[in-house]
């Protein structure tokens, strides 16, 4: 399958490794800074693959005609690039968030359906061994009635991080801690607790990052339509480095905690139907990734390739990407308007909150 990557920055290494691991025919890398693409070819010793380098993605699409494209640029450019790729008949993997406005997310979903193309929102933590096991327990109703779940993302981002890319921490191209650092766990919480949300009440603030436009702390309470609740706590204010990312699920018949760098280990596993599988699950699901990105990208790629060929159902489609985006935007809107927000949300964008912390 002919593959191309658009955007060769921080996260692109995971995409390159995943493309190699899944034996894709890597046709081209594209980045507005040519040296970023060249660096990836050197870093992964891909010189003998004769990968073409482009600085104009439209030229790349026209010349290479890839079947699968990964979009890994700054968040604010995801939608425009994705729509162009769909026009060229490309299946897509779009890094999180799928877009920065609900209108753009809807446009991507609509065009994908019209073209009959696969669109994957790149929430790779869904493929963590720990998360796969929790999802199985949800689907087998081992928790019984779901009571509530919590997502905690306690990370650190310093001045140097934001200085490395001018788009970070802006409403136009990024969003804040919830949209950038926390959206993976927000996606997991919504997915596990039934997806359908009734009400969101949130608070956000910018406590120690005066040089960005957006929040460095977000807290929210969520009421799901199935009667369960969710709590989100996300921050980039932790001193001196990333502390943890955890996901708790509480049901009438089960309690689970996933923790570690990127919800990649099981720390609690207790169910009324069988108490003997806790240690086995903890041992089998333990992963030790080198960074917060985890090991999920290669598995996500494998699922996308199988979905394109009709062998599997896509685990995280464009609609799932929109749901994660919608929840973050609902928290922003609630905090901005100082009131609970009912879902579904319409016509909302990060740009609606420009000037929030001036």
Task: Describe the fold and architecture.
It is a single chain. This protein has 358 residues and is of the alpha/beta class. The protein has two domains: 2-124, Rossmann fold (3-Layer(aba) Sandwich), CATH 3.40.50; 129-290 and 317-351, Dihydrodipicolinate Reductase, domain 2 (2-Layer Sandwich). Helix content is 34%, strand content 23%. It is built from twelve helices and 14 strands. The protein has helices spanning 12-21, 34-43, 57-64, 78-87, 102-115, 129-139, 159-163, 177-180, 183-192, 278-285, 296-308, 318-337, and strands at residues 2-6, 25-30, 52-54, 68-71, 91-95, 119-122, 146-154, 197-205, 217-224, 229-235, 244-251, 254-259, 265-271, 341-342. A hairpin with a 4-residue loop joins strand 9 and strand 10. Helix 1 packs across helix 11 (296-308) and helix 4 runs parallel beside helix 5 (102-115). It is globular. The mean pLDDT is 96.
CATH class of the largest domain: Alpha Beta
Question: What is the tally of helical segments?
Answer: 12
Beta-strand percent range: 15-25%
Per DSSP E runs of 2 or more residues, the count of β-strands stands at: 14
CATH level-four homologous superfamily name of the largest domain: Dihydrodipicolinate Reductase, domain 2
User: Quick one: overall form?
Assistant: globular
Q: What is the CATH T-level topology of the largest domain?
A: Dihydrodipicolinate Reductase, domain 2
Runs with pLDDT <50, length 5+? none
Q: What does the largest sheet look like?
A: 8 strands, mixed
